[in-house]
Amino acid sequence: MSFLQVLWFILIGVLFAGFFFLDGFDFGVGMATRSLAHNEEERTQIIETIGPVWDGNEVWLITAGGAMFASFPYWYATLFSGYYLILLMILFGLIIRGVSFEFRVASAPEKQPLWSWALALGSLIVPFFLGVMFVSMIQGMPIDAKGNMSAGFFDYFNLMSIVGGVAVVLLSYLHGLNYIALKTLGDIRERARNYAEFLYWILYVGLVVFAILLFFKTDFFQVRPIGTLVTVVLIVLFSVLGHVATFKGNEMVAFISSGLTFVSLVAMIFVGMFPRVMISSISDKFDLLINSASSTSYTLTVMTIATVCLLPFVLAYTIWAYWIFRKRIALPAVQTSEVVK
Tell me: the pLDDT tens digits for 247-264? Predict the structure, then answer.
């Protein structure tokens, strides 16, 4: 493996981590429109918190897919063809979530609940199927010597992958609750904190179940024992830190902690897979490896130069956008307003 191959493997992991950190709370806010808000005014209030940023956050996922296509075309080909139907469901969720923002604003008051439901449903579908995809991938899929995946229903949907899907949904919801508490004023803020305080106890149970399944259903603790253990400990540590911060009313710490829980989860996946990009359940001889799945050195060099030149502008714009829209959203201020775009 060359330095550039390892670098781009890490960068793809960073892109997925950035997506879950940023768009994870968008999904949580979307789900909260039907579970946390009590009326359309409160739904408008919490939607306003992500109105200026949700579409930019979604770009991290598109960028991760594009980077995978350019830097590891064989990984991209196996993953996207083997998970075609799963990715179709993710795309469906992203579409109905995206249009719901626009259609809810343009609809008559009696039609707005329909699009609130569409937002909540799309926000649930995407993290669930992403969790199923990533967790089934680390268990190993039936990949042959040519990199073709011939998977059945239970390769995709089994105990561990479903637990993983539910865990990602719960983490997204908690991340969204912490964001709502950070960005709102009034009853919805206190309600979000109360929901989060309770749901963290459920998360602990899920983490224990997931850690047990990770030990018995994957080879992570055999091939990367130290790295896997460290990342699992970080997941638990950030979860506990977020829970304590929620009890103390430290909303910024709670939000950052739930985001770092996501980052630690992605780190665990990429550390455990290294130096593989796809794990074959047929034979370890059929695993896709970094050095055999990547593009040429010239391609990786050009991509690195382009990234170094463009990344500062992207990060600067992202920071600027969050700074501009840093104020809390109060209920009276949104009762007659539209979603900020």
Answer: 999 999 999 999 999 999
Structural domain count of the chain: 1
Do residues 241 and 259 make contact, with C-beta atoms less than 8 angstroms apart?
no
Give the domain extent around 168.
3-340
* Cβ–Cβ under 8 Å, residues 149 and 81: yes
pLDDT band at 112 (very low <50, low <70, confident <90, very high): confident
Q: What Rg value do the Cα atoms of the chain yield, rounded?
A: 20
Among 276, 269, 277, 252, CA closest to 328 = 252
Q: How far apart are CA 206 and CA 228, in angstroms?
A: 17
Name the E strands within 172-298. Answer: 276-278, 288-289
Q: In whole angstroms, what is the distance from residue 260 CA to residue 50 CA?
A: 19
**Count of CB atoms situated within 10 Å of the CB of 59:** 17
The dihedral sign for the CA sequence 160, 165, 169, 172: positive
C-alpha separations of 170 from 18, 107, 165, 251, 300 in Å: 18, 30, 9, 18, 36
Residue 178 has φ and ψ, to the nearest 5°, of -65, -35
CA–CA separation, 13 and 86 (whole Å): 20
Tokens of 166: 């539910």
What crossing angle do the helices spanning 112-139 and 251-273 adopt, rounded to 10°? 40
Rounded to whole angstroms, the Cα distance separating 38 from 192 reads 12
Closest CA to 259 of 172, 132, 145, 163: 172
Q: Phi/psi at 329 (nearest 5 deg)?
A: -100, 125
Q: Is the pLDDT of residue 35 over 50?
A: yes
